[in-house]
Model the fold of this input.
Amino acid sequence: MEFVVNCEVLLYPLVCSQSEAEGRTVILPCVNEGKVTWEKDTERRRSAILTAEDGEITQKHRPDPENRYSVLPDLTLVIKSVSLSESGIYYCNSAPVVNLTVNPAPLKAVSSARPTAERRTDALLTTASSLLRTESTTTATGGLSVVEPVLMFGGVGLAALMFLLATVAAGRVILHQFWLAGWTAQKEAAQF
Done:
């Protein structure tokens, strides 16, 4: 099972663009403080999906007879067998976090490998859960989410690169000025 997540950094907050094929399982992460209300923007109107606390769903705000909506221990939203109608912007505690695009499922031959695919999905969900645990990462990084140190490191790297490029450019200008001054002096000396 593949998950494609492309995060675009806007001014605030961080909104990820995620694309998935119809019928697949989607994982939507959210940094939270132990309680979350998931909502979806449908044609410029938000509707609540569920509220969860301490890794458990406390209230489902819409019918879900097939139990397709669930949460991981870190309150990441999991949608099984995603449909085209589930495309839209998803909100975690009123903050937009994911712009989900569901694409039509590619046509494929029917096989009997369904149990293996389900086991891989469960293994992937378990792995994603352990990677997205905000509680342990927040404690380990002194109150920062997983994304914040990455953005800070990237910003420092970009600043260092800009400094290096400016230094090289300034060095070339100075070198050119010395060469030009030497060339002019040599030309004047040759005329006498």
User: Anything to note?
Assistant: The chain has a mean pLDDT of 77. The longest helix spans residues 147-191.
